[in-house]
């Protein structure tokens, strides 16, 4: 009872301080809010919406269960999750945060995952997408396309390692159905595909409308979290809370022989990955390797902004948030370790090796002006138009359904 009352007081005081801070720093709050809004409607919304809609339709048509049966012999022994986890892993890596959580929660609601399996799966399927790592971080912040290769490898190797570690999480009785599904059985997969489609007898138009409706609702929630944490990060800086936390972080960094000036970027990155990565790239006192290690940790930890998005999605199910949070800490440590481990064989070797005059450099695929850089900037231009059109479509669907009801 006492803990419950204490929690109520702490939450009340915290939200009151936040409201007072918004009034005290109105200009800074608006600027931070606009920054978060720009990130959401230019990049996050248009890049995630197609993945969300297509995934919802794939679930409805039975394609996900089809993939699950085929990948069962691979996912079960390695990660101790059903084959459908392979779909979540692939979509999570391609589309980025918080896609892995959304797809995991959706499959849990469908009954395709147990609670423990869902908690294992969500712990290693939320990752940053390649476009953000190469386009925003390596090119946009560091102006060094080749650094993206190191950051991506460290990030995804760390993620896979977390999945292998989390296979030992939780105790549950053996899945008898999984034992029967052992082996690569294309006939069983096709039968599952057909039966799932028949079971979900929604017309294509209804299925598409539901997919758009669900996807946009999720992305609106994501946008709200991005904006509020962008403002919160700014307010913490002006209230000197970031500097106070930075003093503690300086002790940790000094112990690791890292420059103390990395403390503020690291603290900022714990709240929001974009700001933390950007600030890290401007610390001249740090070597590029030290910057890469810090950014790898920030990308892997995901920031409290992304974690809050995930927590909100998981709250719709019985999937617990605690395993996900612990996995983010493990992922941060492992990603930083892989950044150090791969520094010489990947970054140093490929940047110092002499190329024949008629050969393209190893990083040619990600050079300035390459498709990744151009695509990122093109997304910044057309992203708002995609977002506005999608929201207009969402409103039309809502109005149509309200008239029918």
From TrEMBL:
Nucleotide-binding among keywords: no
One Pfam family matching this protein: Gate
Superkingdom of origin organism: Bacteria
Entry keyword annotation includes Cell cycle: no
InterPro entries: Gate_dom (IPR011642), Spore_IM_YlbJ (IPR014226)
Residue ranges annotated for the Nucleoside transporter/FeoB GTPase Gate domain, each copy included: 42-140, 219-315
Transmembrane segments: 48-71, 83-101, 121-142, 149-169, 216-236, 248-271, 283-304, 325-343, 382-402
Signal peptide: none
Keywords: Membrane, Transmembrane, Transmembrane helix
The protein's name: Sporulation integral membrane protein YlbJ
Species, as recorded: Neobacillus bataviensis LMG 21833
Lineage: Bacteria, Bacillati, Bacillota, Bacilli, Bacillales
């Amino acid at each position: 009872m006492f803990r419950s009352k204490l929690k109520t007081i702490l939450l009340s005081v915290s939200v009151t301080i936040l409201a007072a801070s918004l009034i005290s720093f109105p200009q800074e709050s608006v600027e931070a809010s606009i920054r978060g809004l720009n990130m959401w409607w230019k990049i996050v919304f248009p890049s995630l919406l197609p993945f969300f809609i297509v995934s919802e339709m794939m679930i409805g048509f039975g394609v996900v269960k089809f993939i699950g049966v085929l990948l069962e012999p691979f996912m079960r022994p390695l990660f101790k999750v059903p084959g459908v986890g392979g779909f979540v892993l692939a979509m999570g890596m391609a589309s980025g945060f918080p896609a892995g959580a959304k797809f995991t929660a959706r499959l849990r609601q469908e009954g395709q995952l147990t609670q423990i399996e869902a908690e294992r799966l969500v712990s290693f399927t939320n990752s940053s997408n390649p476009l953000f790592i190469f386009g925003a971080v390596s090119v946009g912040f560091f102006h060094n396309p080749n650094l993206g290769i190191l950051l991506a490898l460290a990030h995804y190797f760390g993620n896979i390692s977390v999945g292998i570690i989390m296979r030992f999480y939780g105790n549950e009785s053996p899945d008898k159905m999984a034992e029967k599904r052992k082996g690569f059985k294309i006939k069983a997969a096709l039968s599952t595909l057909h039966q799932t489609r028949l079971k979900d007898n929604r017309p294509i138009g209804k299925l598409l409308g539901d997919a758009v409706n669900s996807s946009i609702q999720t992305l609106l929630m994501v946008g709200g979290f991005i904006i509020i944490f962008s403002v919160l990060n700014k307010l913490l800086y002006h209230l000197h809370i970031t500097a106070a936390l930075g003093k503690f972080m300086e002790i940790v960094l000094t112990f690791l022989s890292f420059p103390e000036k990395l403390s503020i970027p690291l603290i900022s990155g714990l709240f929001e990955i974009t700001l933390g990565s950007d600030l890290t790239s401007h610390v001249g006192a740090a070597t590029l390797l030290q910057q890469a290690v810090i950014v790898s940790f920030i990308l892997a930890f995901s920031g409290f902004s992304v974690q809050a998005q995930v927590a909100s999605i998981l709250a719709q199910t019985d999937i617990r948030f605690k395993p996900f949070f612990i996995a983010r800490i493990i992922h941060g440590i492992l990603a930083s370790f892989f950044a150090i481990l791969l520094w010489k064989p990947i970054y140093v070797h490929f940047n110092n090796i002499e190329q024949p005059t008629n050969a393209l450099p190893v990083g040619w695929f990600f050079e300035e002006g390459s498709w990744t850089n151009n695509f990122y900037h093109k997304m910044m231009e057309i992203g708002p138009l995609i977002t506005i059109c999608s929201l207009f479509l969402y409103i039309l669907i809502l109005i149509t359904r309200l008239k029918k009801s």
